[in-house]
């Protein structure tokens, strides 16, 4: 997404965006020193496996094909956080003043992260990463110039 000015985007709209991610500018001198990352073919395979897991998971549910389409009931069935993850999520919800919608979106993104990792269960590292993708929910982002 292009640069966002918080004053121009209503909080209710931001709340409906699943992933907010800041991408800092990489200084030119660092570009030439970067090592090669993971090949696209490997990423593609991981994504295809995750999509296949989701298709299999939602086979019994008509019209549901991906984690983003999960109902609240499905969230409890397929993305229920363990006690440690729930504490982490509670802290984030209170500290960042997140909405109930953000809570559901975090769980859906965490389920997808778990699928990409090949994990049957959503674990605390998946929840932590999903919380990290809620950059625009943070109260200080306007001060940071985002």
Looking at this protein, list some descriptive labels:
50% helix, 146 residues, mainly alpha, 7 helices
Helical content stands at 40-55%
State the shape.
Answer: globular
Number of helices: 7
Radius of gyration: 17 Å
Q: What are the segments in which pLDDT stays under 50 over at least 5 consecutive residues?
A: 140-146
Q: Which structural class is indicated by helix and strand composition? A: mainly alpha
The termini sit apart by: 12 Å
Largest sheet: none
What's the helix-strand series? HHHHHHH
The count of DSSP E runs of length 2 or more, i.e. the number of strands, is 0
Question: Hey, roughly how much beta strand do the residues contain?
Answer: under 5%
Task: Return the average pLDDT rounded to an integer.
Answer: 84
What does the model show?
The chain is an all-alpha fold. The chain is 50% helix and 0% strand. The protein is built from seven helices and no strands. Helix 5 runs parallel beside helix 7 and helix 6 crosses helix 7 (124-132). The longest helix is centred in the N-terminal third of the chain and has 18 residues, at 40-57. The termini are close together. 21% of the residues are buried.
Describe the secondary-structure layout.
Layout (H helix, E strand, L loop, with lengths): L10 H4 L13 H4 L8 H18 L14 H7 L4 H14 L3 H17 L7 H9 L14
Outline of the structure:
The chain has 146 residues and is mainly α.
């Amino acid at each position: 997404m292009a640069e966002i000015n918080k004053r121009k985007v209503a909080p209710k709209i931001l709340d409906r965006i699943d992933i907010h991610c800041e991408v800092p500018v990489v200084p030119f001198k660092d570009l030439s020193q970067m090592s090669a990352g993971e090949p696209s073919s490997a990423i593609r395979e991981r994504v295809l496996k995750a999509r296949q897991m989701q298709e299999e998971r939602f086979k019994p549910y008509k019209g549901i094909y991906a984690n983003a389409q999960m109902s609240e009931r499905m969230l409890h069935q397929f993305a229920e956080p363990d006690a440690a993850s729930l504490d982490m999520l509670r802290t984030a919800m209170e500290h960042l003043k997140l909405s109930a919608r953000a809570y559901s979106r975090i769980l859906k993104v965490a389920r997808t992260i778990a699928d990409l990792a090949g994990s049957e269960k959503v674990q605390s590292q998946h929840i932590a990463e999903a919380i990290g993708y809620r950059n625009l929910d943070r109260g200080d982002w306007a001060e940071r110039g985002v």
